[in-house]
Amino acid sequence: MIPLVISLSILILAVVFHEMAHFALARVQGLVPEQFAIGFPIKPFYKGRFGATEFILSPWLIGGGVRLDPKKLDQLSYPRQFLIFVAGPAANFSLALIAAALVLGPVDSVAVNQEMSSSTITAIGMIGSGDVELGQIGGPVALLRMTCQIISIDPHLGSLLVFVLINTSLGVMNLLPIPALDGGHIFIDGFRVLLGKKSRTGQALAYSHFFSFYLLFGVMGLLTVKDIFTH
Q: Does Transmembrane helix appear among the keywords (predicted)?
C-alpha cells in the first residue's frame, strides 16, 4: 500500500509542477490563464475561482492543463509562446535531474536522464512502427505496478528512481507533436508561423485539439482496462 501511495504522490507532484511551470511562464508573459486544472477536467470534485483563473481538481490525475485565451496568446511572438509551452516539460526534466543528482551526483545524473529520455523515445518509436505488440503496451496501471515494485525493493532509493522515471517520461511524452500536448502546440505554432498565419482560432485547429484530447483520454482508458484484466 505504501509503495502505491508514494507512486501516486510522485505522479501527482510531477503533474502539478508541470502545470505550475506553464502557469508561471504565462504570468511572466503577461497572460492570465483562464483555467488551471490538475487531472482531466471531467467530473471534477473541486472547482473554484481565484481572480480571473478557474482552478479545477479532478480524480483523473493522469493529466492536467492550463487554458489560455487564444486571442491573447496570438499577440505574443512565437519565441514567447514557445517558452510557455516548453516550460512544463522543462520543469519535469529539471526535477528529474535534481533527483538523479541526489542519487548519482551532478555529472552522472545528466547521463541517466539522457538515457531515460532516449529509451522513452525509442519505445514510442517502436510502438508507432508496429514493432511492439498491443499486449506489450502498458497504461497508467502498468506504470504504477512497475514503480511500486521498484519502491518495494528499496523505499528510499526506489522513490528517487521512480521520481526520475516519471518526470522524464512525462517530459518526453508532452513533447510529442500531438495537438493536445505541449509538443503539438510547439509544432503547430511553428508551422503556422512559417506559413505566415497569425491566428490560432480556426475551427480546424480547435477540432484537432478536441479530437486528440479525447483520443488520448480514450486510449488511456482502454490501456487501463487492459492492464486491470490482464494482470
A: yes
| Distant-in-sequence, close-in-space partners of 113: CB < 8 Å, separation ≥ 6 | 93, 96, 97, 100, 164, 168
Alpha-carbon distance values, 91 to 2, 128, 142, 174 (Å)? 26, 26, 24, 12
Can you give the pTM of this predicted structure?
A: 0.80
How far apart (Å, rounded) are the C-alpha atoms in residues 51 and 206?
26
d(CA 178, CA 175): 8
**What integer best gives the mean pLDDT of the chain?**
77
Q: Which pLDDT belongs to residue 99? A: 86
Is 32:52 a contact under the CB 8 Å cutoff? yes
Cα→Cα distances 141→95, 150, 158, 223, Å: 23, 14, 18, 8
Q: What is the pLDDT of residues 58-85, one digit of tens each?
A: 877 667 889 888 888 888 888 898 999 9
In this structure, what are the phi and psi dihedrals at residue 128, rounded to the nearest 5 degrees?
A: -65, -30
Q: Pairing between strand 35-38 and 53-57?
A: parallel
Grid coordinates representing 115?
538515457
